[in-house]
Hints:
Layout: E1 4-11, H1 29-37, H2 42-49, E2 52-59, H3 70-90, E3 95-97, H4 106-118, E4 125-128, H5 147-156, E5 160-163, H6 187-201, H7 204-207, E6 213-215, H8 222-231, H9 248-255, E7 256-259, H10 266-276, E8 281-282, H11 292-301, H12 306-320
Parallel strand pairs: 1-2, 2-3, 4-5, 5-6, 6-7, 7-8
Amino acid sequence: MQGKIALEEHFAIPETLQDSAGFVPGEYWEELAARLLDIQERRLREMDENGIEMMILSLNAPAVQAIPDTGKAIEIAMRANDYLAEQVVKRPDRFQGFAALPMQDPDAAARELQRCISELGFRGALVNGFSQRDGAAPLYYDAPEYRGFWAECDRLGKPFYLHPRNPSPADSAIYDGHPWLMGPTWAFAQETAVHALRLIGSGLFDEHPGLKIVIGHMGEGIPAMLWRIDNRNAWVKAPKLHACKRPIASYFRENFWITTSGNFRSQSLIDAMLELGSERILFSTDWPFENVDHAAQWFDAAPISEADRARIGRDNARSLFDLQ
Length: 324
């Protein structure tokens, strides 16, 4: 399929490059670093060779979210966003941007989001999971202190991509002795899925029903669990323990979109389509951590209708991100 749009596609600036060093064995680091630092050359060739018309770019992980000094987090976020804007303006027909946000300070994050949307023309934000702040436990965005940020996000009307990171060391005891479970194998999905469910359970989407949240990797396992989340022990009549007013699945189907990033499995795609509908799914690759050709060749041959392929591959992104 020609004209695909991909939107979990990462870059790095020198200040954040080393954040990605642990995600591949050492002998692959030179290659991954080169992929992260490139935007206008090899990345464009990969796109041209695999039918990708546009990428919406975002900073690598955990980057800003892992800077405990709030002032430094604000500085790096602004520096990364300014650099990305410079790259986008060179080829706006091929690249658009997601804002990096210093969520350590909700007010500063709201201001930076507003700047990125109104001044830099970005299409939304991508945040790498919880944030770290000196002297604080990991900061999850269902906390009351983030309600003002979400109000601004709702007002601006742009999507918020909740991207994975590994759980904090204090919350990782279950993985002790099993490092292979960290990262994309399992911990990324578990961490992001719980964060997304916390947002729903907090009542956030009752207060701001217009919020648009994107999560990757075919929904971080949530689509396959939606029925069980709402229907476990259905014979037991007990009061609900979360603040949201409706079933969890109803918010996920109304306020969330998922991408195919890093999960190139037709059975998983079809399951997600059955749970959510093809209008809630977006093509992505997860470059440079996954190969563009692996993503594109799988998607182009996936056993779905051509109408669904067009929706997932291009049309949903055009609509959601207001792309011409």
